[in-house]
């Protein structure tokens, strides 16, 4: 009996690892929050009300900020009202520039731009302005470089984040760094170090599990990594990206949700168990059809996890 039990256990474990049998999820300790799914839309309109309604038509209850300039106060207010009326949270204002640009004049302009984007997030009622720390790569602003994992990188990024936050002094919007596989923060522990070192209430955590699946161990044990990340960073998390990862030859590649191996039921359950409402945003796809497929997959996995949509 002992031999049979051990053999049965090993067979079951092998099936779970291979993804052939779905693991049984533990019951929620409390009812989950509804999932605030979001993503880009393809409606060609400048009307905030039409844009907000299109999000709802697609079952989105969170959004990337529509195109608007910080100086356009009338449009900012129209966006706030239209999206609030549809119960769509404006999740993120992106600020995708290199805060570690080698040229001092360009670096100063980049930091000013990031500060303006954080100010826009505050004005439009977005939860966060997000950027990466930057890169020392001389050819690609977000490319890999050995120095991106050094104390020099960490200290410079701490200084830059403080400068941006102190320039704006936001009361509601948070500034956050997107997690990356080839630069810091590259996981929950390095993110905690940034939170402690930056030491500003307006600095928060942005989660993208696909970005930090950068080793075979993390790839095969991503359920544990998801749980660890949300356990350690939970109260600081303001926004989450929904992508996936698959193995390709001798490396790991990003793909759309459902085409990889991320444990999406665990991912969704962690997002909706957070104390704060947290957007879950699709990105990096090319066509409406691809977003339809990814959205439907996430909705299906949410239903399997017992999580309703907001």
Structure explained in plain terms:
- With 310 residues, the chain is an alpha/beta fold.
- It has one domain (33-304): TIM Barrel.
- It is built from ten helices and ten strands.
- The strands form two sheets. Strands 1-10-7-6-5-4-3-2 form an eight-stranded parallel β-sheet, covered by helices on one side.
- α2 runs parallel beside α3.
- The radius of gyration is 20 Å and the shape is globular.
Low-pLDDT parts are: 1-22
Strand content: 5-15%
Order of helices and strands: HEHEHEHEHEHEHHEEEHEH
> Could you tell me the radius of gyration in angstroms?
20 Å
Give the count of helical stretches: 10
End-to-end Cα distance, whole Å, is 49 Å
Number of strands: 10
Q: Compute the average pLDDT.
A: 92
Largest sheet descriptor: 8 strands, parallel
User: So, CATH architecture?
Assistant: Alpha-Beta Barrel
CATH class category: Alpha Beta
Q: What labels describe this entry?
A:
single chain; 310 residues; TIM Barrel; two-stranded antiparallel ribbon; globular; disordered N terminus
């Amino acid at each position: 009996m002992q031999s049979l039990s051990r053999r049965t256990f090993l067979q079951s474990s092998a099936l779970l690892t291979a993804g052939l049998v779905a693991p049984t999820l533990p019951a929620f300790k409390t009812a989950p929050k509804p999932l605030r799914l979001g993503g880009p839309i393809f409606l060609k309109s400048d009307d905030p009300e039409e844009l907000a309604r299109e999000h709802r038509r697609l079952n989105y209850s969170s959004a990337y900020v529509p195109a608007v300039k910080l100086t356009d106060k009338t449009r900012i207010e129209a966006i706030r009202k239209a999206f609030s009326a549809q119960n769509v949270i404006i999740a993120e204002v992106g600020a995708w520039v290199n805060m570690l640009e080698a040229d001092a004049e360009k670096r100063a302009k980049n930091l000013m731009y990031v500060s303006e984007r954080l100010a826009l997030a505050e004005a439009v009622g977005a939860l966060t302005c997000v950027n990466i720390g930057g890169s020392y790569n001389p050819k690609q602003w977000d490319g890999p470089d050995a120095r991106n994992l050094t104390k020099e990188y960490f200290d410079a990024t701490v200084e830059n984040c403080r400068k941006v936050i102190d320039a704006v002094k936001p009361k509601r919007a948070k500034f956050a760094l997107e997690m990356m596989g080839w630069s810091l923060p590259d996981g929950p522990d390095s993110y905690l170090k940034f939170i402690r070192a930056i030491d500003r209430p307006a600095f928060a955590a942005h989660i993208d599990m696909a970005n930090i699946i950068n080793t075979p161990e993390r790839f095969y044990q991503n359920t544990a990594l998801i749980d660890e990340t949300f356990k350690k960073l939970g109260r600081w998390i303001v926004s989450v990206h929904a992508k996936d990862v698959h193995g390709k030859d001798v490396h790991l590649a990003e793909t759309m949700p459902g085409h990889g191996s991320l444990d999406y039921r665990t991912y969704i359950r962690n997002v909706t168990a957070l104390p704060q409402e947290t957007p879950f945003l699709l990105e990096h796809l090319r066509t409406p059809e691809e977003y339809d497929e990814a959205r439907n997959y996430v909705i299906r996995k949410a239903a399997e996890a017992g999580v309703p949509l907001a």
